[in-house]
Specification:
By secondary structure, the chain is mostly beta strands. It is built from one helix and 21 strands. The chain has two domains: about 170 residues, no CATH class; about 80 residues, no CATH class.
Length: about 280
């Protein structure tokens, strides 16, 4: 995946692939004296690291835990986000007064700063809540004391905040839940779960097919329904079962895919009633 963008608040976020970025002014043009260059992690040292075996109480400055487990990378992207905001408050400082009265200056408030890089190690990062990035998480445009060539303005420079995958590794950010305590018996893996409605199941990086009927293809109603709460089916296609609570019906409609569930199935009239 290649992202080729310059976000307005200068935040570059690419965890599952490489990144290409350009330095643009607000109107989409390159700043004066700056040339296009492809973003690369080569020869770049990260300010913070995140890893599945990290700890949010550590400094986040190391790529891996040290031998005595006293310091290492952060464990969560949220902790890195907080660290970036704190670092920004120390390195982005207000610009000074113009050294020449004829230099009007720009509306940008900062005069010093630098690029900030966060590298995320490979592995799974399970989220309990969404990660929200705002302009406060991005880089800043600073105004230096150097003239731009026209005496009215100082030279402007953009600094970026970049979150990227650690070179050669693939971090995966997921809002799912890890299912544990699997038992292997006679070629079948089983576990017991509660309070989780599974719609997507991934094992060893592969999406698994959930239990379904029919195993292949799909049913087509033999005739039109009389209301939106019922579906007709052919003899022996469906049967009423004891627990009707945990079922899901996926309907391939003309313009979209509908998801519902059955409340009951009447085998006599060959009618299934939707909730």
């Amino acid at each position: 995946m290649h992202l080729k963008a310059a976000l307005f608040f200068s935040l570059v976020f690419a965890l599952l692939g490489s990144v290409s970025t350009e330095t643009f002014a607000g109107d989409g043009k390159l700043l004066r004296g700056q040339k296009w260059r492809r973003f690369s992690l080569a020869e770049k040292k990260a300010d913070f690291y995140v890893a599945p075996n990290g700890n949010d109480s550590w400094s986040g400055r190391l790529t891996a835990p040290n031998p005595d487990q006293s310091d290492g990378p952060f464990a969560t992207i949220k902790r890195a986000q907080d660290a970036v905001r704190k670092l920004k408050s120390r390195i982005y400082l207000p610009k000074g007064k113009p050294v020449e009265k004829r230099w009007i200056g720009s509306p940008h408030k900062y005069g010093t700063g630098k690029d900030i890089l966060v590298l995320v190690r490979g592995g799974y990062y399970l989220l309990d809540e969404p990660i929200c990035f705002t302009a406060a998480d991005g880089g800043e445009r600073i105004e230096t004391n150097l003239p731009s060539g026209a005496f009215e303005y100082h030279k402007l420079k953009d600094h970026y905040v970049t979150y990227a995958a650690y070179p050669g590794e693939t971090p995966i950010i997921s809002g799912g839940k890890r299912i544990k305590d699997w038992i292997y018996t006679k070629g079948i893996w089983t576990t017991h779960i509660t309070k989780i409605k599974i719609q997507h199941l991934v094992a060893n990086g592969k999406t698994l097919t959930l239990a379904r009927f029919p195993n292949d293809g799909f049913f087509t109603p033999p005739k039109f329904s009389r209301s939106a709460q019922e579906l007709f089916f052919r003899k022996d296609e469906l049967q009423q079962w004891t627990d009707m609570e945990n079922n899901r019906v996926i309907m391939l409609l003309r313009w979209h895919t509908g998801i519902n569930s059955f409340s009951r199935i009447d085998e006599t009239t060959q009618t299934a009633y939707l909730k």
